[in-house]
Specification:
This protein is 46% helix and 12% strand. It has 210 residues and is an alpha+beta fold. The chain has a four-stranded antiparallel sheet with strand order 1-2-4-3, sandwiched between helices. Helix 2 packs across helix 7 and helix 5 packs antiparallel against helix 6. The model has no long low-confidence stretch (mean pLDDT 97).
Amino acid sequence: MNIIESLKWRYAVKKFNTDKHVSEKQLQTLKEAFNLTATSYGLQPLKLIIVSNKSIQKELVAHSWNQPQVLEASHLLVICVPKEYTINEVEKYFELVKQIRNTPDTILEPFKKFLKTDISSKSQEELFLWNKNQAYLALGNLLTVCASEKIDSCPMEGFIPEKYDEVLELNKLNLTATLVLPIGFRADDDYMKDLAKVRKPLTETIVEIS
C-alpha cells in the first residue's frame, strides 16, 4: 500500500487479536522510527517504554479507564518525558553533535549558549509542556509508521499518568508517562474494523494561499 492507502487503512482499534504478536523486526522498525522523530532543536526529550509483560499490562488497565486494548495489545508503548528537565540535557546534546559530526566548539558555542539561556529562563511547568508537545510529534510519527507496516494501534490520552509512573517505576528514571499506544493486530470481530473512515472533505481542512 502507498502511504495514503495505509493511512486510510488505519483506525483506532477497539479490540486486538490476542493470538497475533508484533514481530521483533517490526518492533525494531518502531524503535528506530521513534528515535528518528523530529523534536524541537533535535534535543529528543523523550523516552519510549515498551511493555510486553501481560501481568503489568493487566494491572495498567485499571489505570487506563478500563480500556481493554491495554491488555489485549501485543505490546504497550508508553511515551514519556522527564519530570525535571535541565541544561545538562543541552550539554549532552552538544557532546553528541561533536562526537558524530566533529563540529568545532567555536561553531557550536553560540547556539549552545542560546539554548542553555532559553531553558534556564523557563519554569519546570513550561519545560514539561514544551516536552509534552514533542511527545505528540513522536505519537504521530509512530501512528504513521504503524500504518505503513500494517501494525494496528490505538492512541490514548485516557489514563492516569501518576499510576503509570508508579506501576512502571518511572520516578526512578526521572520520567512521567505522557501518551499511551497499544499496538498489535485488529480482531476479526472488532466492530470498527469495516466501518468507513469519517473525515471532512479536503475543501474544509485545507487552505491554499498562492
